[in-house]
Write a structure and sequence with these properties.
The complex is a heterodimer of chains A (about 575) and B (about 270).
Chain A: E1 5-15, E2 20-30, E3 33-35, E4 43-46, E5 51-54, E6 56-61, H1 66-74, H2 88-93, H3 106-115, E7 118-126, H4 131-140, E8 145-150, H5 156-163, H6 167-181, E9 187-189, H7 193-197, H8 217-231, E10 237-240, H9 250-258, E11 275-277, E12 285-286, E13 294-295, H10 297-306, E14 310-313, E15 321-326, H11 329-339, E16 344-348, E17 352-360, H12 366-381, E18 388-389, H13 403-411, H14 413-421, H15 426-432, H16 444-458, E19 476-479, H17 491-498, E20 502-505, E21 508-512, E22 515-516, E23 524-530, H18 535-546, E24 567-573
Parallel strand pairs in A: 1-4, 1-5, 6-7, 7-8, 9-10, 10-11, 11-14, 14-18, 23-24
Antiparallel strand pairs in A: 1-2, 2-3, 5-19, 12-13, 15-17, 16-17, 19-20, 20-21, 21-22
Helix pairs in contact in A: 5-6, 5-8, 6-8, 6-18, 9-10, 10-12, 12-15, 13-14, 13-17
Chain B: E1 2-8, E2 16-17, H1 23-26, H2 31-35, E3 38-41, E4 44-47, E5 52-55, E6 65-69, E7 76-77, E8 87-90, E9 106-109, E10 125-128, E11 151-154, E12 170-173, E13 177-181, E14 186-192, E15 196-200, E16 206-211, E17 215-217, E18 223-232, E19 235-244, E20 252-253, E21 256-257, E22 260-265
Parallel strand pairs in B: 1-6, 2-7, 6-8, 8-9, 9-10, 10-11, 11-12, 12-14, 13-15, 14-16, 15-17, 16-22
Antiparallel strand pairs in B: 1-5, 2-3, 3-4, 18-19, 19-22, 20-21
Chain lengths: ~575, ~270
């Protein structure tokens, strides 16, 4: 945190938290926080003619942990796509070498997010047993504040408790595990399906039976949602639904979302949703096979628009060569069967699994082009941009470094049409999607909602991140765009968001003219639940370790404090 | 045609990454501009002029540019990598990645080269008068898309992993090779005029291999089908013709299964 004073003068401020849309004004920062005013000795940054926004908040990205690292090991060739990452500037500024494209090194991850003006990133899937690795990697990623969501959707304890309808025990187990792993919230990946994968099976819809556990995916989602609200965690459950990536999966998606109907949130963090549905693009398909594959973005968004207590993120396909990685083990095996590229799979005892397969999204391959359109359509059909967030499910649908390109497509019909026109099957794409008929172009205000205020609120961090109101973190991105005279060439929008003119974090200048000038002071954010001990859960957990169900000892399970040396702990008090 | 001559002035303490030493990068530049072109020594940013004296201006295009390196480049990597036209002549040895990813033009190394020469090459000619180490014309580590075209000729011997994941083009090793030839290949031709230790054509799907010496250890996935007369790179001989790798998937053409072909010179 910089102790000095800083004032950003004369920029076009875009801050949805205060409904400011492009008014020219100043942003003052003191001791790392936004303030009303600063003294005349404050350092001045001239932002005249530029857009000023809060630091970006990424709600879902796979940037740290064993799965990402396995991806790096599986794909050494990914670093051939690094691009120009050894500038003379890098050496001059004393920052570290960067490599990788879809699975960048920790340094490249931190730098590239900072260059795009992002300040907070949620690692979207942390295997609890391997949480120490996740935290080591988070600590090695410079600049950005990070948190991680442990996965619960295929956890043996959770499934045992929920089979018997024991929501309170589930909640107590979640509280214990968040403390052990220094986790942030409840991630659910292919509920039941990944557990079934240990038997070589999968769960494709909500009523499929999970072998051995005698529970269904629908019951797991419902039970975890109730447990999450029982605890009143900052974030809601964060769901990667069943039947990902398959033609005709959209009815299953809507069925999963319906579980939220009538459920009310209970939390002190300003969060309004009870379910966050992630990378919805992969779940919004029609057709009964790849031949009839089509977008059902409109049908899915018609539901999302009227169901106010859910939020979504896009998972936009960016048409790049990338690396897919998910705790949805059976899906990755299925994908390997489709593209025949190399595949690896990991099982994490009692808890989860993961698979990794390289994937080339080719604009001339019809299903890939339809996926591209589907992701963008979700945003273009959304009515409430504060519930609709920009992601690429990095690196699954594309690397996070393509966010500026997705912004370009969302803000410019011309840019969308230009991409569409280069596709070999553009006529068929038009027939199988809605994109050609949608004229909507998102505004900078809506982009700020999707990348700043919205995700921050969804994560229960709306009073710290995602806005420029006094008292919030002094995290500011300044972009070389003239709000009053936006460029007619949409490429300039992409360039402006790729390399921020300035990125300031906690009042310290991190990026200047698109280059990193400081490593800043990153934090690890995690949630600590304070509640009375639950004797049954304590006994169940200790038995699992002492009976040898786990291969490690309980005392070696927790993430030690030294692994997260710069914590920002959010306390949640639960009364008995 | 314009000739640019580089004369080594000092040996890099680490390794000089000479990714700028190609006709494409030199094209249109004066000697002084070429000396200022970037390179790396470890993480340190250096220039070509830090290690070479440069004389002569380049031609307007890569095709009009000949590069002559007068001296030893044992510690210089990436010479001629990604080039599309023009020539590079090196009167000495070179380090790794000579002609890697090259698409056209000619490279002639009069000494030896280290590993990874001509990897993922797409076109052009790479000739080495001495020996090559490992991974001649191979795919990059982890990549499943290998050499697509062009010709690599090693007048001496080569090490292991020759033509891995090869899809097209020709590799000629005039003396001996060690192990792993054309592993995973789905096209292209590898000719080894001397002996090979073994593991020739493992998991190979399609493509041709010729061995004019002996294979010490034959792969079990190959089956001898006949004996044929062939002329290979100027040598006329009788060959034992094997097909394989029988443990691998194979496509069909006109109803016939297409195997990889291995021709080993029939013992006299």
């Amino acid at each position: 945190m910089a102790s000095g004073e800083l004032i950003i003068r004369g920029g076009f401020i875009i801050d949805p938290t205060r409904k400011i849309d492009g008014d020219a004004g100043d942003v003052a920062i003191k001791d790392g926080k936004i303030v009303d005013k600063v003294s005349s000795s404050a350092k001045v940054i001239d932002a005249k003619g530029k857009v000023v926004m809060a630091g970006g908040v990424d709600v879902h990205s796979h940037v740290a942990g064993p799965k990402v690292n396995a991806g790096r090991l599986l794909r050494p060739e990914d670093k051939l796509l690094s691009g120009f990452c050894r500038s003379a500037m890098a050496q001059k500024n004393g920052y570290r070498m960067e490599s990788g494209f879809s699975i960048p090194s920790v340094f490249k991850t931190g730098y590239d997010y900072a260059r795009m003006g992002y300040t907070f990133v949620m690692e979207a899937a942390m295997p609890p047993l391997l949480a120490p690795h996740v935290h080591e990697e988070i600590h090695d990623t410079p600049i950005i504040d990070e948190a991680a969501l442990p996965v619960f959707g295929n956890n043996w304890f959770v499934m045992e408790y929920l089979k018997n309808g024991e929501v309170e025990n589930t909640a107590a187990y979640i509280a214990w595990l968040l403390g052990q792993t220094k986790g942030y919230g409840v991630k659910v990946v292919n509920p039941g399906g990944t557990a079934a994968w240990a038997w070589g099976l999968n769960c494709l819809n909500l009523t499929d039976h999970v072998p051995f556990f005698e529970i269904t995916p629908g019951e797991i989602i419902k039970g975890l949602m109730e447990a999450n609200e029982y605890l009143g965690l900052p974030h809601s459950i964060h769901v990667h639904q069943n039947n990902l990536g398959n033609p005709g999966n959209y009815p299953d998606t809507i069925e999963s979302l319906k579980i939220a109907e009538g459920v009310k949130t209970k939390n002190k963090f300003g969060r309004e949703q009870v379910l966050h549905s992630t990378h919805l693009q992969f779940h919004s398909y029609g057709g009964d096979g790849w031949g009839t594959f089509c977008s059902k973005a409109k049908e899915v968004m018609d539901y999302v628009n009227k169901q106010k207590n859910i939020t979504i993120d896009l998972g936009c396909v960016t048409l790049d060569e990338t690396t897919t990685m998910t705790a949805d083990g059976p899906f990755e095996h299925h994908l390997h069967g489709l593209n025949h590229l190399k595949w690896t799979n990991v099982d994490v005892e009692l808890e989860t699994a993961a698979g990794i397969v390289p994937y080339i999204y080719n604009k001339d391959v019809l299903p890939n082009a339809i996926q591209w359109a589907t992701g963008l359509e979700l945003a273009l059909f959304a009515k409430d941009m504060n519930r609709t967030f920009l992601t690429t499910d990095h690196p699954n649908a594309g690397p996070f470094t393509r966010y500026p390109r997705v912004i370009k497509w969302l803000m410019s019909k011309k840019a969308r049409e230009a991409t569409l026109a280069t596709m070999k099957n553009s006529d068929k794409v038009v027939n199988a999607t809605y994109i050609h008929g949608v004229d909507r172009e998102l505004t900078l205000f809506e982009i700020a909602q999707m990348t700043r205020s919205g995700p921050a609120k969804c994560l229960g961090l709306g009073n710290t991140y995602g806005g420029l109101a006094p008292g919030m973190n002094g995290d500011v991105g300044i972009f070389d765009l003239n709000f009053k005279n936006m460029p007619s060439d949409a490429e300039k929008i992409e360039t402006a968001f790729q390399r921020a003119a300035y990125f300031i974090k906690n009042g310290e200048v991190i990026v200047k003219d698109g280059e990193v000038v400081s490593h800043g002071h990153k934090k690890t954010v995690w949630v600590k639940v304070n509640m009375p001990e639950n004797p049954q859960v304590t006994r169940d957990v200790s038995q699992a370790f002492h009976k040898g169900t786990y291969t490690v000892q309980l005392e070696n399970y927790a993430v030690k404090d030294y692994l997260a040396p710069h914590p920002y702990v959010i306390n949640v008090d639960v009364e008995a | 045609m314009a000739t640019v001559t580089l004369k080594p002035t000092k040996v890099p303490e680490l390794i000089f990454e000479g990714y700028s030493i190609t006709p494409d990068v030199f094209a249109g530049k004066t000697a002084a501009q070429i000396a200022a072109l970037p390179g790396h020594e470890g993480k340190i940013h250096v220039t070509i002029g830090d290690f070479f004296t440069v004389s002569g201006n380049a031609g307007a295009t890569a095709a009009d540019t000949d590069i002559v390196i007068d001296g030893d480049c044992t510690r210089v990597k990436y010479i001629g990598s990604k080039m599309t036209a023009g020539t590079v002549t090196l009167n000495g040895n070179a380090d790794m990645y000579v002609g890697g990813w090259m698409k056209g033009g000619k490279i002639h190394v009069k000494g030896n080269v280290d590993s990874f020469c001509g990897i993922q090459m797409e076109g052009g000619e790479l000739t080495v008068d001495g020996d090559a180490k490992n991974h001649v014309g191979c795919a990059y580590r982890g990549d499943w898309r290998g050499m697509k075209g062009g010709t690599i000729r090693i007048k001496g011997s080569a090490g292991n992993d020759i033509g891995t994941f090869m899809l097209g083009g020709t590799i000629i090793i005039e003396k001996n090779a060690f192990i792993h030839v054309s592993t995973h290949a789905e096209g292209g031709t590898v000719i080894i005029k001397g002996d090979v230790e073994g593991r020739v054509g493992g998991q190979m799907v399609k493509g041709e291999m010729y061995v004019l010496g002996e294979i010490k250890f034959m792969m079990p996935g190959y089956q001898k089908v006949d004996t044929v007369e062939k002329e290979v790179d100027g040598v006329k001989a009788r060959f034992d013709h094997y097909i394989g790798d029988l443990g691998e998937r194979h496509g069909k053409s006109k109803g016939q299964v297409v195997y990889a072909n291995l021709y080993v010179k029939t013992a006299a």
